[in-house]
Amino acid sequence: MENPTPETFVDVDQSICLGFLSLMCFFLMLMMVRCAKLIVDPYSAIPTSTWEEEQLD
């Protein structure tokens, strides 16, 4: 008798789970980079128009 070959396809539920997990990891990486940039240079996130308004008061 021949040895049966194991099926190598991924289950539909497992592929959806892996896709969602990879999307969440990608989103987490983007947020980490954005937060790191904000920590390094916090004043770049503030619009300069608010500085002019505060100086006029």
Structural class: mainly alpha
Radius of gyration: 25 Å
- How much is the average pLDDT? 82
SSE topology string? HH
Shape: rod-shaped
Percent helix = 55-70%
What can be said about the biggest beta sheet? none
Number of strands: 0
Distance between the termini: 90 Å
Which strand-content bin applies to the residues?
under 5%
Return residue spans where pLDDT drops below 50 for at least 5 consecutive residues: none
How large is the count of helical segments?
2
Main location: membrane
Subcellular location: Membrane
InterPro entries: Cortexin
Transmembrane segments: 12-33
Please render the helix and strand layout as text.
Layout: H1 12-40, H2 48-56
Structure description:
It comes from Pogona vitticeps. It is found in: Membrane. This is Cortexin domain containing 2. The chain crosses the membrane at residues 12-33. Its main location: membrane. This protein has helices at residues 12-40, 48-56. The termini are far apart. With 57 residues, the protein is mainly α. It has two helices and no strands. The model has no long low-confidence stretch (mean pLDDT 82).
